[in-house]
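pinging the channel bc i need a second pair of eyes. not urgent but kinda urgent?? the chain im working w is below, pasted from the shared doc
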Amino acid sequence: HVLAGFNSTEADLAAAGYDRDAVKAHVQRLKSQARLFSSQDHVRSLMAGDVWVTVGSSTDLVPLAERTPSVDLIAPADGTNLWADVWVVPANAEHGHLQSGPSPLLPSWLEFGVSPARADVLVGFK
């Protein structure tokens, strides 16, 4: 059973009747059920039948689910976490170093990062 949502604060947990010790005990119980903590072996363990459930990056799991009929992707009804890599350039940036702004090569790098030729590398994000 879930104590609270992913972004719950300590105040949220306290309002739900959980103190720090209760949360630690709950995490320990969940940890005892984990087979491995890995960002590299989770898909291999799932496919070998060593685990029934895995949590991982969509770049790993979407392609797996697309080619494996026995694998389903699910997310909790109340939501899940999301990370995004974001590149920004300050509005007043010029040229190429800390004092003079970004490199003149930056536009080429950004174009490379989002080029259609790279779409095949980013399976699941076409």
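so DSSP finds five helices and no strands in the chain. and The longest helix spans residues 20-32. — does that match what u expected or am i reading it wrong
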